[in-house]
Amino acid sequence: MGKLDNIESAVLVMGCPQVPVQTTAVLYIAYKLKQKGISVNIAGTPAARMLIKYADPESHYFDAIKDLDKTIGDIVEKREKYPLCFVFIHNDAGVSYATTMDSVMDSDVYPVIFGSNAEELSDEIKFECEKIVAVAAHNPKPLINSIDGVMKWDA
């Protein structure tokens, strides 16, 4: 049985979009999830949401873009539930978001860790999970390779 079997929806959590590869990675994962028939919800900061909105103006790769803080509140209050979560991390705030999502969700949380200090940030993740890690800031290929290696989309 594959990792994505029986998954109906996912949330992709975006923090500050300071590192260019984040938007590419979010859209790539969203695309792959949509291919599997999974509803994709993107929760992010205002700037992160704008990048996604203008990168995919017709919403081919996602079903909804949501405010990150509101989404966390909706999960805590049980108004929303996602069996799958990806949290994009390139700084300490991203680690905090990942820890928060792990504590409020009863689901698989995949930290997607990138940037020049990806290995150090990876060591800060203390909850049980399968990490996606690549030293990547401008060239998305190392991060995409890491995503594919962990997710094994065709398995």
From TrEMBL:
InterPro entries in the cross-refs: MTH777-like_sf (IPR036608), UCP006600 (IPR012033)
Taxonomic classification: Archaea, Methanobacteriati, Methanobacteriota, Stenosarchaea group, Methanomicrobia
Name under which the protein is recorded: DUF1890 domain-containing protein
Domain of life: Archaea
Gene3D superfamilies: MTH777-like
Pfam families linked to this entry: DUF1890 (PF09001)
